[in-house]
């Protein structure tokens, strides 16, 4: 018997590990600046209790950096004959099934940081917001291939209606 989040007949394709590096960079910037400010304040004041927020923020940053790697390894997608499966999550798992015939359009996007790390995102849009799915962390070539393949499969399924 297969689990609801891991069907037995599916071969998952993982996203690029460069997604983890991009997310770690973003997290380090967001938490690193306040951490640096707190360290400067702690040094300038000389009070021992001021180091407590520094330690808490550093611990949170370390925990997030360790968590990001696991989160990225949990992301995957699988192309089946009639639909695309997208899964993500460790504690709160999610499996989105997008039927090819319900896809309206497919976007590929890459912001400045994503381009720096050589990754892109594919977003599938359907009539229902509940089945809209995004696959982050794809190599740009894979993102373009997936967009073309999904678009052609979607057109083929719509033609049969």
Automatic annotation (TrEMBL):
What keywords would UniProt list here?
Membrane, Transmembrane, Transmembrane helix
Protein name per its UniProtKB record: PH domain-containing protein
Look up and give the organism this protein is from.
Cellulomonas edaphi
Record field: transmembrane: 21-44, 50-69
* Domain YdbS-like PH, first and last residues per copy: 73-150
Source taxon at top rank = Bacteria
Show the coiled coil region(s): none
Family matches, as InterPro entries: YdbS-like_PH (IPR005182)
């Amino acid at each position: 018997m297969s689990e609801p989040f891991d069907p037995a007949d599916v071969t998952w394709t993982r996203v690029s590990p460069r997604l983890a590096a991009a997310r770690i960079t973003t997290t380090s910037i967001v938490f690193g600046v306040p951490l640096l400010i707190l360290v400067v304040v702690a040094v300038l004041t000389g009070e021992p209790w001021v180091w407590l927020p520094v330690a808490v923020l550093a611990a949170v940053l370390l925990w997030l950096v360790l968590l990001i790697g696991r989160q990225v390894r949990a992301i995957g997608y699988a192309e089946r004959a009639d639909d695309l499966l997208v899964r993500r999550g460790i504690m709160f798992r999610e499996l989105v099934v997008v039927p090819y015939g319900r896809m309206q359009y497919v976007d590929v996007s890459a912001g400045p940081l994503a381009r720096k790390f050589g990754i892109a995102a594919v977003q599938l849009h359907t009539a229902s917001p509940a089945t809209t799915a995004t696959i982050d962390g794809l190599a740009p070539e894979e993102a373009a291939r997936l967009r073309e393949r999904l678009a052609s499969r979607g057109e083929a399924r719509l033609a049969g209606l």
